[in-house]
Amino acid sequence: MSKRIVVPFGPQHPVLPEPIHLDLVLEDELVVDVVPSIGYIHRGLEQLVQKREFTEYVYVAERICGICSFIHALCYCQGIEHIMKIDVPDRARYLRTIWSECSRLHSHLLWLGLFADGMGFENLFMRSWQLRESVLDVFEDTTGGRVIQGTCKVGGVRRDIGQEKLDEMHRTLDSFEEQCRDLGGVFLNDETVKYRLQGLGVISKDDAYALGAAGPTLRGSGVAVDHRETGYAAYGDLGFKPVVETAGDCYARCAVRVRELYSSIDLIRRAIEEMPEGSIDVKVKGTPDGEYFSRAEQPRGEVVHYLRGDGTKHLVRARIRTPTLANIPALVKMLPGAQLADVPVIVLSIDPCISCTER
Amino acid sequence: MAFLKRSPWILHYDASSCNGCDIEVLACLTPLYDVERFGIINTGNPKHADILLITGGINEQNRPVVKNLYEQMPEPKVVVAIGACAATGGIFRECYNIAGGVDKVIPVDVYVPGCAARPEQIIDGVVKALGILEEKRMKMTGEAQAKKEPRLAAEAGEGR
Question: What are chain A's domains?
Answer without folding.
Answer: 46-358 (1.10.645.10)
